[in-house]
Amino acid sequence: MTATLEATDAAPAVGEVPSFDVTLRIERYDPDAADPKPYWQEFTVRAHGTDRLLDALHSIKWDQDGSLTFRRSCAHGVCGSDAMRINGRNRLACKTLLKDLNPEKVITVEPIKGLPVEKDLIVDMEPFFASYREVMPFLMTTGNAPTRERLQSAAQRERYDDTTKCILCAACTTSCPVFWSDGQYFGPAAIVNAHRFIFDSRDEGGQQRLEILNDKEGVWRCRTTFNCTEACPRGIQVTQAIAEVKRAILTRTI
């Protein structure tokens, strides 16, 4: 099925950014349908090159098909809720400009892989967050609460700075072929968030987390394909962080 917005052929005014038609091919799924099988549906919208894919999805939902379902919140690449597969790659819809997707061709949009699809582009994130919780992603200390902040040097903070940037969008984990085929693998995002605390000089639970990640479904399932690093919208060196956790397990030094 193809839906098309009426477009004008009038020349743009001076200083006006020209618009064009762009077609999105979206994988749809409705669990309440009489025949609940995934199918593809195309929509054509009028857009500008500087529009985001999220803008195009909004145009479809608001003007063409209100049943189209997807997650979004902040729309500025902070909440991580609108991760999806765009032209075969995991991206955030709010950070993906149409001009960077070759809009002269049909743009494909699918839900991220490896997690159960609930409806259209929305997946069940619970398996992802279950792995996240299992690595205990919080500061672990002993003794009484301090009367002032726990101090650390700039060098100590730098040690884990990169992995503090994670927004839990699941783009890295759901780009991993091992995660697609092995539902028990912790996945890159859980390891990244464990890294953030393992190498925090104020934390006292590093060895405990290393034991958890030393499991057969932990860091050793990583095959170093770098899909996770390429998919991260925050530029985190995910594969490097996993390698550092592996090294810490082998050397027992943090």
UniProtKB/TrEMBL annotation:
<keyword id="KW-0479">Metal-binding</keyword>
<dbReference type="InterPro" id="IPR001041">
    <property type="entry name" value="2Fe-2S_ferredoxin-type"/>
</dbReference>
<dbReference type="GO" id="GO:0051538">
    <property type="term" value="F:3 iron, 4 sulfur cluster binding"/>
</dbReference>
<dbReference type="InterPro" id="IPR025192">
    <property type="entry name" value="Succ_DH/fum_Rdtase_N"/>
</dbReference>
<keyword id="KW-0001">2Fe-2S</keyword>
<protein>
    <recommendedName>
        <fullName>Succinate dehydrogenase iron-sulfur subunit</fullName>
        <ecNumber>1.3.5.1</ecNumber>
    </recommendedName>
</protein>
<dbReference type="GO" id="GO:0051537">
    <property type="term" value="F:2 iron, 2 sulfur cluster binding"/>
</dbReference>
<dbReference type="InterPro" id="IPR009051">
    <property type="entry name" value="Helical_ferredxn"/>
</dbReference>
<dbReference type="GO" id="GO:0046872">
    <property type="term" value="F:metal ion binding"/>
</dbReference>
<dbReference type="GO" id="GO:0006099">
    <property type="term" value="P:tricarboxylic acid cycle"/>
</dbReference>
<dbReference type="InterPro" id="IPR004489">
    <property type="entry name" value="Succ_DH/fum_Rdtase_Fe-S"/>
</dbReference>
<dbReference type="InterPro" id="IPR017900">
    <property type="entry name" value="4Fe4S_Fe_S_CS"/>
</dbReference>
<comment type="pathway">
    <text>Carbohydrate metabolism; tricarboxylic acid cycle.</text>
</comment>
<dbReference type="Pfam" id="PF13085">
    <property type="entry name" value="Fer2_3"/>
</dbReference>
<dbReference type="InterPro" id="IPR012675">
    <property type="entry name" value="Beta-grasp_dom_sf"/>
</dbReference>
<keyword id="KW-0408">Iron</keyword>
<keyword id="KW-0003">3Fe-4S</keyword>
<dbReference type="InterPro" id="IPR017896">
    <property type="entry name" value="4Fe4S_Fe-S-bd"/>
</dbReference>
<keyword id="KW-0560">Oxidoreductase</keyword>
<keyword id="KW-0411">Iron-sulfur</keyword>
<dbReference type="InterPro" id="IPR050573">
    <property type="entry name" value="SDH/FRD_Iron-Sulfur"/>
</dbReference>
<dbReference type="GO" id="GO:0008177">
    <property type="term" value="F:succinate dehydrogenase (quinone) activity"/>
</dbReference>
<dbReference type="GO" id="GO:0051539">
    <property type="term" value="F:4 iron, 4 sulfur cluster binding"/>
</dbReference>
<dbReference type="InterPro" id="IPR036010">
    <property type="entry name" value="2Fe-2S_ferredoxin-like_sf"/>
</dbReference>
<comment type="similarity">
    <text>Belongs to the succinate dehydrogenase/fumarate reductase iron-sulfur protein family.</text>
</comment>
<keyword id="KW-0004">4Fe-4S</keyword>
<feature type="domain" description="4Fe-4S ferredoxin-type">
    <location>
        <begin position="156"/>
        <end position="178"/>
    </location>
</feature>
<dbReference type="GO" id="GO:0009055">
    <property type="term" value="F:electron transfer activity"/>
</dbReference>
<dbReference type="Pfam" id="PF13237">
    <property type="entry name" value="Fer4_10"/>
</dbReference>
<keyword id="KW-0816">Tricarboxylic acid cycle</keyword>
<dbReference type="GO" id="GO:0022904">
    <property type="term" value="P:respiratory electron transport chain"/>
</dbReference>
<feature type="domain" description="2Fe-2S ferredoxin-type">
    <location>
        <begin position="20"/>
        <end position="112"/>
    </location>
</feature>
